Amino acid sequence: MRGGIVMIAWLALISGGWQQSLADASSGRGAPDVVYVATPSDVVAQMLRLANVTEQDVVYDLGCGDGRIVVRAAKQYGARAVGYDISPLRVAESLENVRRNRVEQRVTIERRDIFTVDLSPATVVTLYLLPEMNERLIPQLEELKPGSRIVAHDYEITGVTPDRTLTMTSKVDGVPHYLYLYITPLRLDDETLGDEP
Ligand SMILES: C[S@@+](CC[C@H](N)C(=O)[O-])C[C@H]1O[C@@H](n2cnc3c(N)ncnc32)[C@H](O)[C@@H]1O
User: Fold this and answer.
1) What is the structure's pLDDT at 82?
2) Does ligand 1 have an atom closer than 6 angstroms to the CB of 90?
3) Whole-angstrom distance, CA of residue 84 vs CA of residue 80
4) Which residue minimizes the CA distance to atom 15 of ligand 1?
5) Ligand 1: which atom is nearest the Cα of residue 87?
6) How confident is the model over 145-171, as pLDDT tens digits?
7) Which of 44, 37, 105, 111 is nearest to 73 (CA)?
8) Which CATH number, 3.40.630.30, 1.10.10.60, 3.40.50.150, 3.40.50.300, labels domain 2-188?
């Protein structure tokens, strides 16, 4: 049931994202590994609450879409924030969002492949990506300082035990959303650790 609802939400937006993927691929600078689907605003608010964001934090959103998470982290909590996206269209939307909300002093947007980003300066990382992407990010997430928080939306980090899980029904889209909080150091499952005794 849960997987079905999540899948329908993604499929509903897949055609527009697919066109963008083709445009990015033809630009020769790398296509997105997942299509753009925005996190509803009330879910964004809950993700930042779950991560206990304060003005001391440096928040990274990996695949930042229109920049809504990093803009809110800066505007509501006074945090510094960085949004990374591989799509030039999403980067342009994020930059416009930052400008409109006048948070240029605290928010940076960069066009980058998230799998090449050094995450060590971040204290909070937000993810709304596919499970295999979350799993592929584990070596980078392990570079975070102890006590850093990771909040994953709808998809867990496979092979890592969350410290807290939360389900909420968004007033924006009327469907359940699943949030997973991980506090570093990550608690890797035995399988993820490998075969050594
Ligand atoms: C599901 S959307 C999430 C957007 C935003 N974080 C939110 O929650 O509203 C995923 C985003 O990841 C971006 N993306 C996909 N693969 C990427 C990659 N390898 N590097 C950087 N961004 C990527 C897409 O362009 C898209 O904007």
Assistant:
1) 98
2) yes
3) 14
4) 32
5) 25
6) 999 999 999 999 999 999 999 999 999
7) 44
8) 3.40.50.150
Q: Where are the domains of the chain?
A: 2-188
Residue 26 has pLDDT above 60, yes or no: no
Give the number of the atom of ligand 1 that is nearest the alpha carbon of residue 30.
19
Distance in Å, CA 108 to ligand 1 centroid: 16
Is 134 a pocket residue for ligand 1 (Cβ < 6 Å)? no
List C-alpha distances in Å: 169 to 68, 71, 83. 19, 23, 25
Answer whether 74's CB lies under 8 Å from 99's CB.
Answer: no
Model pLDDT for residues 91-105, shown as the tens digit of each residue: 999 999 999 999 999
Confidence at residue 25, expressed as pLDDT on a 0 to 100 scale: 42
Confirm if 89 and 16 have CB atoms less than 8 A apart.
Answer: no
pTM, two decimal places = 0.88
For 190, phi then psi, to 5°, come to -55, -45
Of all protein residues, the one whose alpha carbon is nearest to atom 27 of ligand 1 is 65
